[in-house]
Amino acid sequence: MSRGPWHVAVLMGGWSAEREVSLKSGEGVARALESRGHRVTRIDMGRDVALRLAEANPDVVFNALHGVPGEDGTVQGMLDLMGLKYTHSGLVTSVIAIDKELTKQRLVPHGIPMPEGRIVSSASLFEGDPLPRPYVLKPLNEGSSVGVAIVRDDSNYGNPIARDARGPWLEFDELLAEPFIKGRELTVAVLGGEALAVTELVVSTGFYDYDAKYTDGLTRHVCPAEIPEAIAERMKTIALDAHRLLGCKGASRSDFRWDDEAGEAGIFLLEVNTQPGMTALSLVPEQAAARGIDYAELVERIVEEAL
Question: Minimal CA–CA distance to 100: which of 149, 139, 145, 147?
């Protein structure tokens, strides 16, 4: 299909923990498409989403949802059944990439370095630590660092973790426990089969959690990251390999920790985001801009790949 004009349904909102970010992403995408002369139907996803999509009958759906059910294969399966083209990754990729343990099973045998981890029941945490401290606890299938806790010797969670301490163990029956990797937080976006750049995320307080990601001023983005060229190239290669191995389409974003005292052996891929944010603070638009691709062009390129 040519560069349009297209009729694009922008699917956003929904009911996940990342609803507000999704609404911002969706509105940014909608305005960008309208600025390029495309017709846009905005859909804040409710339970009647299939009916509303059928009524709109768009050329393509821009999936601006974050988290479950927009990122875990549920919405992708519905769109497949409806015969609608859509942006970003398909059903199987989405099912695997949202699940941190499935992602490891897919990537680690191919040489992708990821932290060793184990699934633990939340109830067991009140009896004792699953790993030596410091370690990280995270939900198996949430994005945007929702529900991540770092358990240190000096943390206020108690030792063992107290039953009434605030943390993901109050919300989820099972969690993924991983060793905490000291060092630096970095991320690489992949678009159209190309790794764009490496960004370092310098957090003013705490760690790169949900608030740090989406609150203006809490995190400084250094793009391109001020790291050795060999480290940057290795991260871009890993991000590109992960994108291909998982079968991602459109844009993806790979998040890393790098222990800079260990050199290349200190690089660890944490997760691959198949529905990266498209807000004003988001990393994919920022990396695209660093490569001379403005926001509206970025959105059009993602839609073109879907078409």
Answer: 139
